[in-house]
Write a structure and sequence with these properties.
- There is one protein chain.
- By secondary structure, the chain is mainly α.
- Helices cover 56% and strands 0% of the residues.
- It has eleven helices and no strands.
- The chain is globular.
- The protein starts with 10 loop residues before the first helix and ends in a 9-residue tail after the last helix.
């Protein structure tokens, strides 16, 4: 599932790192391989992960947030989908090998910020809750899973929401999960992008 590295792509010019940590991540060969992985598909017509990250970063640029929030959102953006290339999609699914937990384990080498780590690990969880509720009509399971998500993100609900919004408003992703989240999750300040 590994793709050849495209020598001509200047990842640094594409992602425009702003911090030493962002620059450090772009020096890691496994990280770079993940950035270059991907083909156009539903939700990600842009193909490669680095192109999706660029879209998320552009959305972050549109937010009126303080420097700490911006820094956290950017790190989450850099890492959140970068380990899709090694995700195990066999059935039954081993969710510890989903790209979110893989990305979290990678980032634990660089930060102890639980808000960042939890958001990286759980960045797709709101979508999964929506999907279980609305597509599978399993309201009880969705409710339990959503409660677990909200318990995990705790006081960092706004960070999670802002990232979920910046991530969802890319490519040709379905806006319904984001709309549902905004209408049903207490303790978030809705923002426009």
């Amino acid at each position: 599932m590994k793709q050849p590295v495209a020598e001509w792509i200047d990842i640094e010019a594409q992602l425009r790192p702003e911090t030493d940590l962002e620059r450090q991540l772009l020096q890691d060969p496994d990280f770079l391989q993940g950035l270059l992985w991907g083909v156009p598909r539903y939700g990600h017509p842009e193909g490669e992960v680095y192109k999706h990250i660029r879209e998320v970063l552009d959305n972050i640029d549109r937010l009126d947030v303080d420097q700490l929030m911006r820094k956290r959102l950017r790190i989450i953006a850099f890492v959140h989908d970068t380990f899709k290339y090694i995700e195990d999609k066999s059935t039954p699914r081993d969710w510890s090998k989903h790209h979110g937990p893989l990305a979290r384990r990678f980032m634990e080498r660089f930060t102890t910020d639980e808000a960042i780590l939890d958001t990286i690990e759980l960045h797709d969880e709101a979508y999964h809750c929506w999907r279980i509720k609305h597509l599978h009509q399993d309201h009880d399971s969705a409710g339990l899973r959503l409660k677990e998500l909200l318990d995990r993100i705790g006081e960092h609900r706004q960070l999670y929401y802002l990232f979920f919004k910046c991530d969802t408003k890319t490519g040709d992703k379905n806006p319904a999960p984001l709309n549902w989240f905004e209408q049903n999750i207490p303790g978030i300040e809705i923002v426009a992008i």
